[in-house]
Amino acid sequence: MPPFPSDVAFTPAVKVIQKQKGSRAAYSRVEQGREWSTTVTPELREYLSSLDMFYLGTANASGQPYIQYRGGAPGFLKVMDERTLGFADFSGNRQYITLGNLSENPRAFIFLMDYVNGRRIKLWGTARVVENDPDLNDRLLDCEYGGNVERAIVFSIEAWDANCPQHIHKRFAQSVVAPIIEKLQMQVRELQAEIVQARRTQTVSSSGSVAPEESQ
């Protein structure tokens, strides 16, 4: 049987369990029909252009996994060609776990989450660290971040698939929420000022004070 792109995740052991749990037949039909993608489609390119974070998974030679959060300006995970993504690596806590893992095991995984719209995409592939390549660093530079690019990380796609949106909790970026909060706070201040003015007017009316123009 020829390999399918989804075999990167659906190993023989996984397929055995799928059969035991009753889902193998459905996924077998997926393999024969709408299989997983292996290249960057227009839909994936658009999806990446709006995301400001993702999770990068690596593992060391013994298989110990590690997940790292990566964040930046929308679109900082850039499409280099139809099968390659890349991003600039800046100075962090200097543990270098991801770099160490990739030095002995190139297998990598990218988990893309769009919390606002309830969408997630999984990408399997390999990754490599590229040091001392100013042209590549400039190509992947995040212009909205002032740090110096120390190196580049390039991800080669083997397969990717959109995941079920079930159970994704809504979360909004600060850039989306901040203007709304500021507008609401302004409305609150205006209402508070109106309340203070109304109370003053009520106090004057209840005290029986007469306006100057009425006393003449």
Order of helices and strands: HHHEEEEHEEHEHH
Strand order of the largest sheet: 2-1-5-6-7-4-3
Structural class: alpha+beta
Number of continuous helical runs? 7
How many domains is the backbone divided into? Answer: 2
Which terms summarize this structure?
single chain, 216 residues, alpha+beta, seven-stranded antiparallel beta sheet, 7 helices, extended
Q: Could you walk me through the main structural features you see in this protein, from its secondary elements to its overall organization?
A:
The structure is a single chain. The chain is 37% helix and 28% strand. With 216 residues, the chain is an alpha+beta fold. The chain has two domains: 37-163, Pnp Oxidase, Chain A; 174-209. The chain has a seven-stranded antiparallel beta sheet with strand order 2-1-5-6-7-4-3. The longest helix has 33 residues, at 174-206.
In terms of topology, how is this protein built?
Layout: H1 12-21, H2 24-32, H3 42-50, E1 53-59, E2 65-71, E3 78-81, E4 84-90, H4 97-104, E5 107-114, E6 119-130, H5 134-140, E7 149-163, H6 174-206, H7 212-215
Antiparallel strand pairs: 1-2, 1-5, 3-4, 4-7, 5-6, 6-7
Describe the structure concisely for a colleague.
A seven-stranded antiparallel sheet has the order 2-1-5-6-7-4-3. The chain has seven helices and seven strands; from the N terminus they run αααββββαββαβαα.
